[in-house]
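Cross-check.
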Amino acid sequence: MQRTNIYLDEDQLRLLKHLAAEENKPVADLVRQAVDQFLRSRLENDVTWQNDMTALIERVRNRVSHAIDPDEIERDVRQAKQDVRAARR
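Predicted model, tokenized:
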């Protein structure tokens, strides 16, 4: 484990200390649990999104004329992914 510093506002720290006392745990444990939950949520969303995109690509490939270059379709889809990710930021 590595040590790190974070800045919390007074209310956040007060509530964390209160919860830590109720659960008889260090504040650091609660922070690590919160970070773990956040990371799991983000990764699950990313995996779900990636699976949805893969399924979409396959559906598009099945509908598109064979005269269209698959690499061109792939480039368009990748560009759409980049656009969505940029818009999320």
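The mean pLDDT is 86. The CA atoms of residues 77 and 83 lie 10 Å apart. Passed to J.P. for a second look.
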